[in-house]
Amino acid sequence: MTAATWIDAREDEATALDEGDAAGSARDSFLLPRDDTSSGYGSLAYLAGNSLGPQPAGVADDVRRELEDWAARVVEGHWSARRPWGDYHAALRAPMARVVGALDDEVVVMNSLTANLHFLLASFYRPTTDRYRIVIEDAAFPSDSYAVRSHAAFRGFDPDDAVVRLRPRPGERTLRTEDVLAHLGAEAHRTALLLLGGVNYLTGQLMDVAGITATARDHGISVGWDLAHAAGNVELALHDWAPDFAAWCTYKYLNGGPGSTAAAFVHERHLGDETLHRLSGWWGTDPSVRFEMRAELTPIASADAWAVSNPPILSMTPLVSSLAVFEEVGMPAIRARSVALTAYLEQLLVGEPGEVPFAVVTPSDPDARGCQLSVSVPGDPAGIAGSLRSVHGVVCDVRPPDIVRLAPAPLFCTFHDCWRAARALRQAAT
Ligand SMILES: Cc1ncc(COP(=O)(O)O)c(C=O)c1O
Q1: Measuring from each residue's beta carbon to the nearest atom of ligand 1, which residues come in under 6 Å?
Q2: In angstroms, rounded to a whole number, what is the distance separating the alpha carbons of residues 318 and 59?
Q3: Are residues 138 and 181 in the same domain?
Q4: Is residue 250 located within the same domain as residue 293?
Q5: For residue 326, how far is its CA from the centre of ligand 1 (angstroms)?
Q6: Cα 151 from chain centroid?
Q7: What is the distance in A from the centroid of ligand 1 to the CA of 408?
Q8: Domain range for residue 165?
């Protein structure tokens, strides 16, 4: 059997898998774009959920409600809208906390991801003359790299010296936990802070958040996590794992829409600690006295203490419908489906028969990855991704120099979508 007939022959199997298992799926809760190619399938196979999730079905009504309330009530909407705007973020707190395994008070929905990292670094990067280094991964998302370099410079350090980038071993693409731990042990006397991605955006590697956090804390190193690719993708237990802080965006797996409001976590042990420096604003003061317009802030013992501005209602509204889906399905069921989908995609990509001209760089251990597979594609990955979209109706994305990212997000992707993606990549890359 040729490779082409092998993959073609498996379409029925993919369809049967979908018929047999809908647990963890909420496909009907999303608006998925129609397939405008000649592939013959109804909707696009949307495997770019790690860049921007699709629109939850309730969003248009939710946004319309806010527009109506704005038109009808103007300023009075702050307290009399159907969802009053003044504490709009408060209603999102509990469902968001459940997504990341945090206590409600540890979470605040606010700002954008990089802005949140800045606010948190302002509090938790506390360098001394000896311990001033910030450890990140070499494949950190550029914005995180820029953020930590700017904080080092802000405190008078040379970013090239102060920011340490952890690299995989020669010939390897992902970090080994033991190497991260060894570095923390050896360099603790110089290290102030560790900031890593929970799931790396490029490789799809899921880090050992619990183990790395525990070791860093044992060495007196402050720990923060960028959970942009982890929140809503893998199960997290932030309160129990106890990093100092975390931040994440909501437009990827949380399907909050382009530029939707981000979120932040501060562990309970820091809440109400007035020795911590914060960059403050009026939404971080005690709401019961906010409109007394005092000159000095009245502290609150929750993650809201890091909020600065009144909530951006229109960029928060999609989260109402999106988080309702997460509440309904729950992270354990989402994750169980995700593990099955991603294993299936991997098997179709690099399973038998024969050689394929690409390689999956994401770890094959389900505990070391979320739903994303990063495929190293030689030649012209952008051209290949373009043909996946225009010929096969498969949406993925590309990160230089060689990575095509395929993320079968379990809430709306199917086994058949995985089959389409694998078949398309096999055809386009050979
Ligand atoms: C891992 C990671 N960190 C940070 C960012 C920056 O996010 P924002 O533009 O919302 O600040 C992104 C954006 O895709 C990301 O993937």
Answers
A1: 112-114, 141, 143-144, 197, 201, 226, 228-229, 249, 262
A2: 5
A3: yes
A4: yes
A5: 21
A6: 23
A7: 20
A8: 63-326
